[in-house]
Amino acid sequence: MSAKKLILIRHGQTEWNKAGRLHGRSDLPLNDTGIRQAQQLATELAPEGTWDAVYSSPLFRARQTAQILANSLGIRALHENQELMEQDFGDLEGTLVADGADEQRQLLVGTGETEEHLVGRAVNALFKICHQHPGQNVMVVSHSALICSVIAALTGESNPRMANGTYVELDAQLLVNHVSREPLGNSEATAKPACRPWIMAGTRLCVLVSGGLAAAEAAAYHQDAPSTVTWGFSPYQSTLPVKLRVSSSSS
Known about the structure:
By secondary structure, the chain is of the alpha/beta class. Helix content is 35%, strand content 12%. The chain starts with a strand and ends in a 5-residue tail after the last strand.
């Protein structure tokens, strides 16, 4: 038996996020907008019921977000997990990157942590968290590259990049399916294996859209996508998703 509900949350905004700089392991605090995003997210999640635990990347921006959520929602169990740390981008951290631009993706070839290692350690952590909290509701606060890479690996599809202060509700069965194909190993969050390109997320997982996109667009997405995603929109970033529901196509 695994967690009843597992959501993956991207931390609130930092000054580097605002400027469009590549974050990685560089450790910055939330800015004022990021704090408001975390507070707004807590308000949104409060009606969802009791939350039993929060897990967080050890990086400060994630820990701040997790602490705001825990304090606001009365969650006593707050844990740090090294395997939830953001992807290591090596010497490119701090550089300005155009979100999603092909030429910027190429800059990430041959530096930092591989996509394979990132997904391996993240799935390892999430699978264990799910099975440590059977029947419970659990939050995981992490980072854009990690969350998007995991979703792409579990569903076999690209997905939109996540806005700061947004979350994905993950079907635990996707983790079980993945682990049945790729048995868990002993990953080390600080390791830097041989390098491969980092692939930025695309946009194919959009299926059901609540607000912000026309019904015709939603229907067009629905024709091709094998997984289900529900979008909402943030008062701080009105064109970016707040809520995504991802489930396996067989469920």
